[in-house]
Amino acid sequence: MINANDPSLNSWIEVPAGSDFPIQNLPFGIFRTESNPAPRVCTAIGDYVVDLAVMNYLTLFDELDISNEVFNNRYLNDLMALGKAKTKALRNRIADLLREGNEEAKDLSWHFLHPADKVELLMPVKVGDYTDFYSSMEHATNVGTMFRDPDNALLPNWKHLPVGYHGRASSIVVSGTPVRRPKGQQMPDGADKPVFGPCRLLDFELEMAFVVGRSTELGQSVSTAEAEDYIFGLMLFNDWSARDIQKWEYVPLGPFLAKSFASTVSPWVVTLDALEPFRVGGPKQEPAVLPYLQYDGHKSYDIRLEVAIQPEGGQAQTVCRSNFKYLYWNMSQQLAHHTSNGCNINVGDLCASGTISGPTPDSYGSMLELSWRGTRPIAMADGTERKFLLDGDTVVMRGYCERDGLRIGFGKASGRVLPAE
Ligand code: CA
Predict the structure, then answer these.
(1) Nearest of 91, 4, 3, 18 to residue 50 by alpha carbon
(2) Which of 330, 345, 350 is nearest to 413 (CA)?
(3) Within 10 Å of residue 71's Cβ, how many Cβ atoms?
(4) Active-site residue identified among 114, 139, 166, 298
(5) In CATH, which superfamily holds the domain spanning 130-418?
(6) 136-152 in b/e burial notation, b at 16+ Cβ within 10 A?
(7) How many A from CA of 144 to the centre of ligand 1?
(8) Which residues pair with residue 30 across a beta bridge?
(9) Which superfamily does 29-122 belong to?
């Protein structure tokens, strides 16, 4: 059996240098074409999208015994629910079909290969529940410094549990979907009564989200040792935020309408299997965490992250470079904590990391931090400056792992800001 992670594998499909999608990646997504508008499961390689529904129809996955309905599907949920043993075998089989030397598959390629710029990528997961964590110590420290006490920036619970809240699943959209500037209630500085109107302090939050691929029963808890069996893969995640609405509404129960108007995900779910070569240790946790949050081995991943802002009609400009590995709390701890009270999780649930800020000012994962509450505007190439996002700005998040010539990427999570209605 071919192992898709084998670094020596090459494909009969040309993969340009710097591509996010070598044969060692093989993420999963949902696409459709103009000539066949039925949504179906696909993977990416180089500048191509591979129709897995057609591959299955051609009996190329025959020994895996997966029904056509799993692939002729609006979402990946049914595929993920097959379980990791099967989805791992599927990914390895796809690598076998696309590897250099597989002339049989190459001869059939006109059936299943589409140029990526000729397809539409759809929201890949039917998200049941969405949870947002707050797991970057640098981010929590920056926010605590700005809004509370620089000497006690972290609240007393922060190093003892991965703080999170339940978000809104209905407004999660796929990359490319425009985002309307929200309206809401705000208390302007110096005012004595609140106003209602368009958000003036619109922000992005650089995050990643993991997709749950295995359900639990109500009452069941998942340990840190088991957690990765329940995580199918990762996506880029922009948790758009309305800072002025947030500041007025969040006490005492946390963010509500300041976050629920939209979140943007990348269209590809990159599997934990593909990320395996990029495992790293996380930051040292001091003080020691409670036993149910302790873990063995390396549970974090070295994923480079970037955010660019492209003004209307202008050039994209990178404003942030960060890394997933900076997160204080890892995904296994997040999931162990999430289920520690017996709360059940379902296939398709999404857990976002929280804003991923790094140690240096150019690695801060939000405009709130990059412009330090608007006091340090960012100069743009077109001569304008940004404290927060303007109408017409497109925010583009990218992420990739790279080591020893192997690059595993996530594509992009992009969204343009439309004016308030
Ligand atoms: Ca967030």
Answers:
(1) 91
(2) 350
(3) 21
(4) 139
(5) Fumarylacetoacetase-like, C-terminal domain (3.90.850.10)
(6) bbbbbbbbbbeeeeeee
(7) 15
(8) 41, 122
(9) Fumarylacetoacetase, N-terminal domain (2.30.30.230)
Distance CA 337, CA 294 (A): 11
In sequence order, the 6+-apart residues with CB closer than 8 A to the CB of 358 are 138, 321, 322, 323, 326, 364, 365
Task: Say how many Å lie between the CA of residue 333 and the centre of ligand 1.
Answer: 17
Which residues face 307 on adjacent strands?
320, 397
Domain-by-domain residue ranges, the chain?
A: 29-122, 130-418
Closest residue by Cα to residue 168 from 54, 286, 259: 259
Helix (H) or strand (E) holding 246: helix 243-249
Beta-bridge partners for 416: 394
Residues 262 and 95: their CA atoms lie apart, in Å, by 35
Interval between CA 385 and ligand 1 midpoint (Å): 24
Q: Which residue has the tokens 């494909």?
A: 11
Distance (angstroms) between ligand 1 centre and the Cα of 264 equals 12
For residue 159, the CA-to-ligand 1 centroid distance in Å is 18
Per-residue confidence (pLDDT) for residue 395, from 0 to 100? 98
Averaged over successive runs of 10 residues, the pLDDT of the chain (421 residues) comes to 95 97 98 97 98 98 95 98 98 98 97 98 98 98 93 96 98 98 96 97 98 98 98 98 96 95 98 98 97 98 98 96 98 98 98 98 98 96 96 98 97 98 93
Active site residue 139: yes
In the three-class reduction of DSSP (H, G, I as helix; E, B as strand; rest coil), residue 88 is classed as helix
Whether the full predicted model's pTM is greater than 0.90, yes or no, is yes
Q: How far is the CA of 83 from the centre of ligand 1 (A)?
A: 29
DSSP alpha helix (H) spans, 24-147:
52-57, 68-71, 77-80, 84-98, 103-107, 109-112, 137-147
Strands 350-352 and 130-133: parallel
Among 261, 346, 347, 414, CA closest to 73: 347
Q: Which of 192, 236, 311 is nearest to 20 (CA)?
A: 236
Q: What is the pLDDT of residue 318?
A: 98
